[in-house]
Amino acid sequence: MMRKPVVTAFLVALAVAILAATGGVRADQMDSRLPELFDRLKSADSLREARVLEAAIWTIWTETDDDDVGLLFRRGMEAMANDTPDDALKYFTEVTRRAPDFAEGWNKRATIRFVMGDFPGSVEDVERTLALEPRHFGALSGLGLINLALGRETAALKAFEAAMAVNPFFPGVRERVKELREKLGGKPT
Q: Rounded CA gap, 145 and 149, in Å?
């Protein structure tokens, strides 16, 4: 049996190898490395392995070949980290304007809109994210949170179950599914 540090080092090396396996590919939801990463994520043997694969997916989703869009995206992320949602909204709106096919720009704007209490706007952006990247477990989970905030528990459960189907290890989703199933009396979604 491998010791934990050896396993962690192996998983990190594996993720790096997967990311490096195809040079010069477009990085975003259309990236050719994603199908294998998603397949591996669904069948991960441990939380540690899932986290490494999840991180690799997020890394790909946030990459763009447009330097200006990348700069705006990073500024939006900094504004989120600095708790300045108005600035983040401005940056992510510009990202979506300049790169309408970049799913992660829509997802981040959906997140900011949720934080700002703009649930209808957040839903619109989640729907755009999912149209571009149906496997976006972050957007699916976000849709669950929006529905919870709006008191739509059955819709929330459906969104959380969809997120869990893509990423069984996504933080908090399994617990929310369990709680909602119990609360709804085991009703099917």
A: 6
